[in-house]
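Incident log, structure service

09:12 report received: a user says their structure output differs between two submissions of the same chain.
09:20 pulled the input from the user's history:
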Amino acid sequence: MGAAAVVACGGGGGRGTPTTPTPGGGASASATIVIEASGRVNPSTVTIAQGGRVTFVNRHTRNHDMSSDPHPTHTDCPEMGQVGFLAPGQSRTSGNFNTVRTCGFHDHDAPGDMGLRGRIVIVAVQ
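09:34 re-ran on a clean worker, output below:
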């Protein structure tokens, strides 16, 4: 199974491509962030169109609890609340990100692990 990653969330360059183009906006309507076998998210930053969603896939050998910043309140982006706990091999999709903004995310159980931190950039549809 290949790691499909779309533009959005975090600071690293992903190897994915947009899966659902948004006419005139250039941002994708959805993105996938993979927690790789190394225990790092890929990509760490994705950009999605307003109203889009992000799917997290856990390919690591341990559980992860993906949450919105800031730790421990997780209040910046409530849409991340639909992701939460991911066992190895599990995936889950966020709610729709309807507000134009940048949302930070992290693993609640390892908030200082920079390899599990990233950003979701939500841009207006043009």
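09:41 both user submissions now match this output. Likely a transient worker issue. Closing.
09:42 reviewer note: The domain at 28-123 is CATH 2.60.40.420 (Immunoglobulin-like). Residues 1-24 have pLDDT under 50 and may be disordered.
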